[in-house]
Specification:
Layout (H helix, E strand, L loop, with lengths): L1 E7 L4 H4 L4 H8 E2 L7 E7 L5 E6 L5 E2 L2 H7 L8 E7 L4 E5 L2 E5 L4 E4 L6 E5 L8 E7 L7 E3 L5 E5 L8 E7 L10 E7 L5 E2 L4 E2 L3 E8 L7 E7 L2 E7 L3 E5 L6 E4 L4 E8 L8 E2 L7
Parallel strand pairs: 1-3
Antiparallel strand pairs: 2-21, 3-4, 4-11, 5-10, 6-9, 6-11, 7-8, 7-10, 9-12, 13-14, 14-15, 15-23, 16-22, 17-24, 18-21, 18-23, 19-20, 19-22
Function: Catalyzes the isomerization of 5-dehydro-4-deoxy-D-glucuronate to 3-deoxy-D-glycero-2,5-hexodiulosonate.
Keywords: Isomerase, Metal-binding, Zinc
GO biological process, one term: D-galacturonate catabolic process
């Protein structure tokens, strides 16, 4: 079993505005999250979010001491909570002896204090892909599965503006209690390509996006930066991007796609957004 861990330090927006395309990618993108039989993780200094992907095949994958060392504790969830959504084949997560069976697009929340976590696939030829987010926690809440049916479904956007989409709130105060982690999935309707438009930012919370179900010959142009000084990143399927509190986060694809969003920070108010008029983007 291989676990690869990166650390991403926070930067001021004045630094980002002088970066080359390669430097922006190195600072804000996570280009590899899923590899057969491996765990890939990125620890970011934006709200201490941990972003990871686990893709078990013939053998289980376990969260070990290396990830715990990264966050400075004896085990990963000693002072943290964790959420995940499966974007692959059927699998299961075994947490402190309790088995959680997860189908495609099922989610799972694990509360602070869970010590042992293992990931397995039902079929190694169609492996599960567990997209994982973890944030610091101050209290322990019950672990539980959140299926797509459990998630709160929101209908947003319009076909006329090419941003008609369904937003599913998985880890959200109206679904289950958590300390600070928020997590959900958005799927664009056929013919729509814009996500999260009009653009917004929230100075009190960071956000991460995992883009997936992008056709092989397509991509998403992810916009970031201050509204008056935007930059862009080109993302392919199953790549993630970190969005600092000072940055907008929106994008447009060359085909329909889906993405998982996650947040951590001062509050859990999903509507705590500072919208940016489209005429103000530069």
């Amino acid at each position: 079993m291989t676990t690869t861990i990166q650390t991403r330090h926070a930067v001021h927006y004045t630094q980002s505005e002088t970066m080359t395309s390669a430097e922006l990618r190195d600072t804000f993108m996570i280009e590899t999250l899923f590899a057969a039989g491996e765990i890939h993780a990125a620890y970011t200094h934006y709200d201490r979010m941990l972003v990871a992907g686990a893709m078990p095949t013939t053998a289980p994958l376990t969260i070990g001491a290396d990830l715990a060392k990264t966050v400075g504790t004896d085990y990963l969830l000693e002072r943290r909570e964790l959420g995940l959504i499966n974007i692959g084949g059927k699998g299961k997560v075994v947490a402190d002896g309790t088995t959680y069976a997860l189908d495609f697009q099922d989610g799972l929340y694990l509360g602070m204090g869970v010590r042992e976590i293992a990931f397995e696939s039902e079929d190694s030829a169609n492996p599960a892909k567990f997209y994982i987010n973890s944030a610091p926690a101050h209290a322990s809440f019950p672990s539980r599965i959140v299926t797509k049916a459990d998630a709160i479904e929101n209908h947003l956007g319009d076909q006329l503006t090419c941003n008609k989409r369904k937003l599913y709130q998985y880890i959200h105060p109206k679904v289950l209690p958590t300390c600070q982690l928020l997590m959900g999935l958005t799927r664009l309707e056929p013919g729509s390509v814009w996500n999260t438009m009009p653009a917004h930012l929230h100075d009190r919370r960071m956000e991460a996006y995992l883009y997936f179900e992008i056709p092989e010959d397509a991509f998403v142009v992810h916009l970031m930066g201050r509204p008056q000084a935007t930059s862009h990143l080109i993302l392919r399927s199953e790549q993630a991007v970190l969005s600092p509190p000072w940055s907008i986060h929106c994008g447009s694809g060359t085909a329909s796609y889906a993405f998982i969003w996650s947040m951590a920070g001062d509050n859990q108010s999903f509507t705590d957004m500072d919208f940016v008029p489209m005429k103000d983007l530069k």
